[in-house]
Each structure stands twice: as structure tokens, then as C-alpha cells.
Amino acid sequence: MAPGSSNSSDLAPPPSLGDIDRPSLFLDFDGTLVDLAETPDGITVPDYLEAAIMRLAERLDGRLAIVTGRYVADLRKHLPQCSVVISGSHGAEIESPEGSPVSGKEPPRVDEALLAEARAFAQRHERLFLEEKELGLGFHYRACPDKGEDVKAFAQDLARRHDLFFRDGKMIAELSTTDDNKGDGVRAIMEQTPFKGGTPIFVGDDVTDEDGFAAVDAMGGYAIVVGDREETKARFRLFGVRAVHQWLELE
């Protein structure tokens, strides 16, 4: 186990959100706010979730952001009425509650040659789902876990040949045109009003959330892992999506 890491089963629940001074809250989406599904569009968003998130954001004076591997436009499709800061594509995109870019960066888009090769590979593997993002690709193998090693090997080879960045997630092999991560998104947002000066809290379930955990930990904040992880930089644990909703008083 890496220095500074823990097994999630050894971690205690976090303190009450109300006991934390001026919380600046960063929430992962899949596996944290909604249960995971075989495909990104297969998720179920509870009827109460959007309104509850907006009430929580108001309670925190706007210091609530969703930090996701999805691209921003895709997340807004699932939460169309949720006017909060969103960091998408693992920190490469950041949008204000009004939908305007917070970052002036314009990361490169995925080119057609890469898409064609990825689509051909996905078509050859039954139940493998290819997620096409603006700034990358995701090979979801939750429905065919026996193909995981082959999928990761192909994605890594594709990354090398197309000068992309490989990211290994929970039943997903991702490629990105940038090396941004969720920690970068957290740090950028923490420089903005009203987050600046608050106590950062990151809640997430996946290995890709570890960068967010490291970022808030370095700022003296709270890193909270959701579910079971053999190795994590988080200092606290919630057992699952339902526990997250209860801790945030969303239900």
C-alpha cells in the first residue's frame, strides 16, 4: 500500500456537514450521487435529486460543484435544472452555474481516425460500450468484465499511438486529449468566489477521484470515499450512494 493510503474499511464516517466551517463541497456524480449502471445513459436519477442539490447549494451559499468524468454537456442532460458549478472531463472543463466557461482553455477534440479505430474495436466485442466524449473516449466493460484486460491493453496501445492520456477507472478504460484530473478542477474552482476561503470537501467512489482527494487533503479539507476501496487517500468513508444522500440530507 502506498504511503498515506488506507483501506476504506478502516475509515470512519465523516463529521456532520453542519459541523464543518464554511464547506466548499465537491461531489462526484456516477457512483456517488447516482448508482452506477452498465452504460452512462443507463443511470437512474432520483426524482428528488435536482431540487435537493439546489437546496443544498443555496444552504452553502453556492459553494457546491459537481466534478465528473462525463463531459459537461452530458451531465447537464441528466441534471437539466441543476444550476451549480460543473467540472467535466476530469477537470478539463469548468462551467459556471449559468453555463459559461470558467476556464479559458480550449482542449483539443478527439479526431475521426481515433474514433473510427475505437468504434471498430467496440463492435468486435459484444456488450462492450464505447462512450464518445468531446475530449476523449471511454470503454465501459461492466457488462463484459472478462474482457477487461484486453480492453485496457487496447486502450493503452491506442493512447500511445495517438498521443493521448490513459486513465484506468472502475470498469472503464478511458482516453483523454488532456492530462487534467479532478484535482486540477478542484484547485481551479477553489480560486473562485464563493468557494475561495472555504473548507474543501471531496466525495467520490472511483480511482479517478483520488486526485480530488489529494487536492482537498493538501488544503486541509475532507476527502470522503464512497464504498469499498482497497487503497485510498481518503480519510473518511460513506458506504454507498444512499449514505451520501443521507449525509448531505438530500432525501
Q: Topology, please?
A:
Layout: E1 23-27, H1 49-59, E2 64-67, H2 72-78, E3 85-88, E4 93-95, H3 112-123, E5 129-133, E6 136-140, H4 148-162, E7 165-169, E8 172-176, H5 182-190, E9 199-204, H6 210-218, E10 222-226, E11 236-238, H7 241-248
Parallel strand pairs: 1-2, 1-9, 2-3, 9-10, 10-11
Antiparallel strand pairs: 3-4, 5-6, 6-8, 7-8
Task: Give your account of this protein's structure.
With 251 residues, the protein is of the alpha/beta class. The protein folds into 2 domains: 22-106 and 180-248, HAD superfamily/HAD-like (Rossmann fold, 3-Layer(aba) Sandwich), CATH 3.40.50; 112-176, Trehalose-6-phosphate phosphatase related protein, domain 2 (Alpha-Beta Plaits, 2-Layer Sandwich), CATH 3.30.70. Helices cover 28% and strands 20% of the residues. It contains 7 helices and 11 strands. The protein has helices at 49-59, 72-78, 112-123, 148-162, 182-190, 210-218, 241-248; strands spanning 23-27, 64-67, 85-88, 93-95, 129-133, 136-140, 165-169, 172-176, 199-204, 222-226, 236-238. Strands 4-3-2-1-9-10-11 form a 7-stranded mixed beta sheet. A 4-stranded antiparallel beta sheet has the order 5-6-8-7, with helices on one face. Helix 5 (182-190) packs parallel to helix 6. The longest helix has 15 residues, at 148-162. The chain is globular, with a radius of gyration of 18 Å. The model has no long low-confidence stretch (mean pLDDT 95).
